[in-house]
Write a sequence for this structure.
């Protein structure tokens, strides 16, 4: 992939300071603190409902926080002065659902952001789209519609559609959870490629082996809080919290019996 992550110098690109959020009376995030450096890959693990997806949505301003502050590239998201469109040009987000436009071809889906948001010409946008599709081995599918692709292929297109915006941060929200097991590996291979070029990423995942392999830091969320964070080796081999140990034991046992 293009070396998107090399433009800004080192330093904390994301700072999450005491962030809490409620949906009505239900508190879904509870005093979250997290720093993410440039080129760092942070994996969020934890049971469904622990707050992983909500945290990612807050980072892209798809959800508003009630207390605390989120700073991205030196810009606070809570001042009311942030340009949401400019922010979302810096931050790509990919969800469980592929969210491709069914009436557009694969090529048109990938071209859309560069054309409409970045203001590039049709020729420039098409060149970027062809290059990205070639790199993930899907250029032959450029003129197909999404429903003609497998789930793994659609998810890879969703990822490169986000990359076509040349983001500085990628948020990946359980991107393999809707896939058949045999399709998971092709999507994870694409994400591995992003780590190799230094893309800054925050990944919510239930793939423990993948998190252990690619993460520079792992955060275990429980009840809307980051209960434990550390290097993958520490989290997966010597977690300090009983709840972390219990969660990992359940997940790893399930993987063995699958």
């Amino acid at each position: 992939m293009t070396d998107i992550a090399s433009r800004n110098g080192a330093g904390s690109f994301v700072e999450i300071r005491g962030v809490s959020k409620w949906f009505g009376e239900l508190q879904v995030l509870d005093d979250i603190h997290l720093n993410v450096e440039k080129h760092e890959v942070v994996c969020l693990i934890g049971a469904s409902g622990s707050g992983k997806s909500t945290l990612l949505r807050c980072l892209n301003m798809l959800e508003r926080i009630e207390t605390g502050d989120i700073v991205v590239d030196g810009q606070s998201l809570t001042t009311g002065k942030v340009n949401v469109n400019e922010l979302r040009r810096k931050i790509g987000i990919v969800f469980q659902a592929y969210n491709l436009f069914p009436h557009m071809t694969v090529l048109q889906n990938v071209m859309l952001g560069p054309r409409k948001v970045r203001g590039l010409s049709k020729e420039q946008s098409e060149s970027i789209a062809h290059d990205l599709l070639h790199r993930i081995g899907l250029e032959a599918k450029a003129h197909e519609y999404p429903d003609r692709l497998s789930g793994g292929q659609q998810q890879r297109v969703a990822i490169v559609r986000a990359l076509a915006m040349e983001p500085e941060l990628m948020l990946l929200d359980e991107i393999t959870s809707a896939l058949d097991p045999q399709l998971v590996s092709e999507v994870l291979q694409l994400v591995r490629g992003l780590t190799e070029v230094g893309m800054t990423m925050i990944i919510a995942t239930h793939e423990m082996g993948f998190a252990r392999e690619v993460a520079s830091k792992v955060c275990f969320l429980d009840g809307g809080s980051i209960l434990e964070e550390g290097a993958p080796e520490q989290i997966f081999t010597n977690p300090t919290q009983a709840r972390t140990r219990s969660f990992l034991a359940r997940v790893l046992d399930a993987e063995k019996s699958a």
